Amino acid sequence: MEKNSKIFVAGSDNFIGSSIVRALTRHGYTNITGEGIKEPDLRDKEAVKQFFKDTKPEYVFSAAGEIGGIGANQETPAFFMLDNLLTESHIISEAHNSGVKKLIYLASSCTYPKESNQPMKPEYLMTGPLEPTSEFYATAKLTGIKLCEAYMQQYGDSFHSVIPANPFGPGDSFDAENGHVIGALIRKIHTAQQSRSDSITVWGTGKPRRDFIFIDDLGDACVFAMENYTGSSPLNLSVGEDVSIRDLANILINLSGFQGQANYDLSKQDGMAIKLLDGSELKNLGWRPSISIEDGLDQTNKWFVENHL
Ligand code: GDP
């Protein structure tokens, strides 16, 4: 990829897509389609076809598709599944039809089986049933992985999938009901502080373990994958460290100076017990994160205070 190559980031206005645009800019790429121009409705096949015809991108990041936390996925599974199926299939097929040189497809760690061995390696995909709380969204994302493989197998296209750890950071959703755990807990803690409540509610047992990646590191890792990854199996984008939800809640409580306590609502689902990605391949290729999880959480908490309070 040359510094002036034409690059399309599908989903450039969402949390992950915008981090890829920022990373591309940091790395000196100057010709980013999708930045500042109106993206077509990616669920509309004809609109996507016309967009590729008009803009002729050479490199594509497919970061589009609706995402949500464990609550949102259980509330509206058809919405998440259909949106992702439509957007990924339109982007991947039109990237092929218009001769895109390389495509990076953003999958999700919930594509791994519920009972997967840990840390999770790409060869464990499709070796067991999915976690029920996210199985519809995960099925759509698995389809995207397989579609890239199919285009690679049938046409020799350089279409590669990456599987990010759970992203967090400035710009995330801080919705207490529909966001992912870090955004939701930051919101709950600050709401409790404002209303002088002495506790927050954390869903589930607090025992699940998750592997988090700071959003700017994720954007950077996506650009790194575009520049360096040529493998046919998905590449995990992970630092390879996990933390329990209980420890995470305590870190966030300490960061905010909240004096109350965390109550665990056992009527809410835990989801997968552990999601830890094996990050060794990314590390072997030479990628390193720029920030520790603790510093990333601190930055995220400060950003929330400045932008949402
Ligand atoms: P997941 O990796 O798809 O399960 O993503 P989430 O970020 O939605 O949830 C991660 C874990 O945090 C799950 O075990 C949730 O039960 C737990 N959790 C605890 N409190 C919350 C909360 O307020 N919101 C969300 N989304 N998850 C929470």
In short:
The protein is an alpha/beta fold and 309 residues long. It has helices spanning 15-26, 45-55, 70-75, 77-97, 135-155, 181-194, 215-228, 245-256, 280-285, 293-308, and strands at 7-10, 32-33, 59-62, 102-106, 159-164, 166-168, 199-203, 209-210, 212-214, 235-237, 243-244, 261-265, 274-275.
Secondary structure: helix percent:
40-55%
Which homologous superfamily in CATH is the superfamily of the domain at 7-170 and 213-238 and 277-290?
Answer: NAD(P)-binding Rossmann-like Domain
Shape: globular
Query: Which spans have pLDDT < 50 for at least 5 consecutive residues?
Result: none
Radius of gyration: 19 Å
Instruction: State the helix count.
Output: 10
Gross CATH architecture of the domain at 7-170 and 213-238 and 277-290:
3-Layer(aba) Sandwich
Q: Which sequence of SSEs, written as H and E, runs from N to C?
A: EHEHEHHEHEEHEEEHEEHEEHH
Give the tags:
309 residues, 6-stranded parallel beta sheet, 13 strands, Rossmann fold, 3-stranded mixed beta sheet
Description:
With 309 residues, the chain is an alpha/beta fold. It has a domain at 7-170 and 213-238 and 277-290: NAD(P)-binding Rossmann-like Domain (Rossmann fold, 3-Layer(aba) Sandwich). It is built from ten helices and 13 strands. It has helices at 15-26, 45-55, 70-75, 77-97, 135-155, 181-194, 215-228, 245-256, 280-285, 293-308; strands at 7-10, 32-33, 59-62, 102-106, 159-164, 166-168, 199-203, 209-210, 212-214, 235-237, 243-244, 261-265, 274-275. Helix 1 links the parallel strand 1 (7-10) and strand 2. The longest helix has 21 residues, at 77-97. It binds guanosine-5'-diphosphate. Residues 69-71, 110, 134, 166, 179-181, 184-185, 202-204, 208, 210, 245, 268-271, 275 line the site of guanosine-5'-diphosphate (GDP).
